[in-house]
Structures are given as C-alpha cells and as structure tokens.
Amino acid sequence: MRTERLVQRLLGLAAGCSVAVTLLIFGFMVILGLPLATGGTFFRMFTSAWLPHQGVYGIAPMVAGTLSIASLAVVFSVPVSLGCAALISVLGSGPLPALLHRLVRFMTGIPTVVYGFAGIFLLVPLVREWAGRGSGMCILSAALLLGVLIAPTMILFFSDSFASVPRTYLEAAEALGATPVQKLLHVVIPCSWRGLTSGVVLALGRAVGDTLIALMIAGNATAMPGSVLEPARTLTAHIALVVAADFDSLEFRTLFACGIILYLCTTVMVIFTRRIGAAWEQQRW
Amino acid sequence: MNAPAYQEEQMKPEYKMSSENLDFYYGDFKALHGVSMDFKPREVTALIGPSGCGKSTYLRCLNRMNDLIPISRVEGKVTLDGEDIYAPSLDVVMLRRKVGMVFQKPNPFPKTIFDNVAYGLWVNGIKDKAFVQERVEESLKQAAIWDEVKDRLQDTALGLSGGQQQRLCIARALAVKPEVVLMDEPASALDPIATQKIEELIHELKETYTIIIVTHNMQQAARVSDVTAFFYVGKLIEVGDTDTIFTRPKKKQTEDYITGRFG
C-alpha cells in the first residue's frame, strides 16, 4: 500500500514537472519578448523584412521559409511513407516487410547531422545541376532532405495504424474477392484515418521544429524567398544563427517572437490532431 | 437453342466441389488428415464435430482463406467444377468471388447498409449505378432483410441488431453472385429467433447455391442440411445423408457425438 502511494506521488511529481517546464518556457518567452510589444515593433515584425543595419527586424521571410520548407517536406514524404507503410503491413510478403520495418526503425536513430552532411554532398549538387543556377542550397533541397528525415515517423505511425485494422474487416473484404490493393484502398486506409492524420501532424511538427537540416541545406538567406529554388532561412535556423552572434539587442529579442510562433504552431497542431481524432472516432468512414 | 447449355451441363462434373486427401498444417501441427469429400450442387452440407476438430479449418481451405495464415501449408487437392483451386495458375481473387463466405461473428464494414452490400460489386469493378442499386435490393431481398432496412439504406450498418447484421453479411456475400456459399457457424452469436431466420434463409438459398455450413449445434445441422459430415481430431470420420448420420451412424465415434456422450 505504502509503496503504491509513493510510486503515485513520484509519478505525479514527474507529470507536474513536465507540465510546469512547458508553461514556464512559454512564460519566459512572453516576458522577455514583452519589450518588443510595448515598443510597438512586435506586430511590424511579422510583416517586414530582416534588415538589421537599418534597425528593421522583421521575421516575415523566416515564417515563409519555415512554412514552405515544412509543408513541402510533408508533401514529398506522405506518398512515400504511405507506400512504405502499406508494403510493411498490407502488401508485402516474405521477409520484406520485417526487413523494411527494421530499416525504418533504424532510420529514426540516425543523427540529423548525418542526414545534413549526406545532403550537402549528394543532394545539393544534384539540385544545383538540375536547376542550372544558384548554389543548390535552397528550399527544394531542404524540403527533400527534411522529407527523408520525417518519413520514418510517418511510416511507423502509418504501419501501426494499418496493423490495428480489425482482422474481421480484412477477412470480409478478402472473402468478397478484394485484391490486396483494393483491400488497402477501401478498407485499411479508411479505417486508419486517425492514425494517418496523427502521423502527418506529428511529422509536420517535426519538420517545423527541425533546425539542423534547414541550417545546413536551405542557404539561410534572410530575403523573402521567391521560388523553391531560392535559399531561405527558417525560424529555427534564425534563432540558432542569431544566438551564436549576439546576446542583448533588439535583434536578439526578436528571437522570442520566433519562439512564440513555433510554440503556438506546435500547440495548434496538437489541438488539431486531437479534434480530428475525436471527429473520426465519431463517424469512422 | 438450348444445345450449348445442355452440352455444358454434360461437361460439368457431378460435384460442385471436391477435396481429395486434403492435409493442412499450422507450422508443424497437422490440423487435417487426408480429408476427401464431395459437395453436390444446390445441397446443404453441414460440417459438425467438437471444437478443434478441424471443421472450420477445412471450410477455410475451400476458398483459400487460410492463405492469410503465414506458416500454414496445404497438401492434397481441392477442386471447384473440376478445377484445382490450389493450382499456381489459379486466381485467388476469382476463386473467392465464386466461393463466398459468411463468418461466425457478423462483420459488416462500418459503412452504410447500402455500401456494405455494394462493396463486393465495387471491388469487381461494377460501377453502373442503376445496376448496383438493383443488385443491392435483390441481394437484401434474398437475404430476407429487405423489409427491415429498405427505409434506412443510408444508415450505418453498425446500428442493426446482431441477427440483422448477419443477414446483411449474407446479402453482401450474395451480391457478387457466388456459386458456393461457405458459412462458418453463422448463427452461433445470435439469439434463437435470429437463428431461426438464418435457418429459414438457408433453406431458400439452397435453391440457387451450394451451401457448406459449419455448426456446433447438432439440431441445426439436422434441420438445415441434406448431407452431414462428422469431423474428429482433424479427420473426417463419417459423411452421409443427414437422416442416416443422425439415425443410423455407421461409426461408433459419430454415434457417441450425436447422442451427446462426448464433445
């Protein structure tokens, strides 16, 4: 009895700590970002460009960079991940699915910097040649590589939710003469919407939050990107770059605004996933 | 004018389905030992026997549902209209369209009643709306559930009672016009009234289809079937006219089972 209570307290403490840390970080960012808001520069930041020499610290290009790189990465990654997950849990036969599953799990353990490194030497030259201009360090390169980075998250999520489709549905479809592909399209995918959406949102969160790939591959230009072949800087890379150079200036304080945006992005995504999950639970397919 | 049809009739073997020395293994475990039996067209055959005797395994060999089990293995021969269904050249998808199946637990898809019945047609590539509509109605009527659902075809199938769901699953199996219908204890999860409806339905379906039904319930086997086969520990002990099996069984094991001395 006593040990049970002790364990309960310890677990409660752990849970309390993690909640407190999350809230404190948010509070910290708001408080330190406050001078911006009172100075009247807060809202201008979201619309203007980044021209520190003229005293203009807008982060609009970084917001654009983050959004375009992250969403492109998801667009590249979703079809590949869907196919891979389908191969693992529905279509594959023999030793292939298990092998693929192991490989994907292994991929989650590779340090991001290794991906970045491989990207610089393999992907960037390829994109440079294909585009025929620029350095090859651009939104497209970063998004492609980020797509590879977030794929394992999605694949594991997708294949888990595919595998949890009730056997009775699969048997019913099978007995009606559905081909494996029809089974996938008409039964497995519709039954897994919840897992699919959470996988996508989680991967999107990872793509938005990733720093290193963008820092290494995207080119880090502070100008507003005009096309996917132009370099761009993400919010996360921006924070890393400015922090490395400076500690107390208006320039530095704008970072808190970047932090708040990233924070809100994650929160919105989590709420979104919950909502969608609940809605799908209600009506299934 | 009828000559080709007549010739075709002549060419058809006497039996709709047959198995010859069928062995089935789950890994190292031999679940079926040399089962040979024949199924005549438009007859109901009941497979009876105690739990674990292999009757469901045998049933699932007849439309290759056991293919889904990774470590299983089949030896021997099963034929449909004289054609070996385990031949490498045979298309399993086509086989399952000819040999439909109804499961123990009603398993409608979490879709509307209409979509459930239409599903088999869609996977067959039939898209003509009027045709699908017609076939859905016909199948629901055949499965004796039309009157209960005709006003709510667009409601979810999960809102139906267990008995209705099972008849819906039968309609779903019939919609693709199979030739043989396999039923794996179709009434074991249902109450007596729903069970009676399923049994009446089997009587009507027999006019058109060859039906093979696994059942735990011996009264049910006696009521619905023309032929009864008794399985015990993976072997086919005895097969014969239902009347004969239940009144004058030749084997002692069959007699012990049907008189309730074991199992």
Explain how this protein is built:
The complex is a heterodimer of chains A (285) and B (263). By secondary structure, chain A is mainly alpha-helical. Chain A has a single domain (61-246, 269-284), classed as MetI-like (MetI-like fold), CATH 1.10.3720. Chain A is 78% helix and 1% strand. Chain A has a two-stranded antiparallel ribbon with strand order 1-2. In chain A, helix 3 packs parallel to helix 6 (139-163) and helix 9 packs antiparallel against helix 12. Chain A is globular and about 70 Å long. The model of chain A has no long low-confidence stretch (mean pLDDT 86). Chain B is an alpha/beta fold. Chain B has helices at residues 3-11, 55-61, 92-98, 113-123, 129-142, 146-149, 162-175, 192-205, 218-224, 242-247, 252-258; strands at 17-26, 29-39, 44-48, 72-80, 83-84, 99-102, 180-184, 210-214, 227-232, 235-241. A six-stranded mixed sheet of chain B has the order 6-7-8-3-9-10, with helices on both faces. A four-stranded antiparallel sheet of chain B has the order 2-1-4-5, with helices on one face. In chain B, a hairpin with a 2-residue loop joins strand 1 and strand 2 (29-39). In chain B, helix 4 (113-123) packs across helix 5 and helix 4 (113-123) runs parallel beside helix 7 (162-175). The radius of gyration of chain B is 19 Å and the shape is globular. The relative contact order of chain B is 0.17. The model of chain B is unreliable at 1-12 (pLDDT under 50). The chains are: A mainly alpha (285), B alpha/beta (263). The A-B interface holds A 166, 168-179, 182, 186-187, 191, 284-285 and B 63, 65, 68, 93-97, 100-101, 103, 105, 107-111, 119-120, 122-124, 169, 172-173, 176.
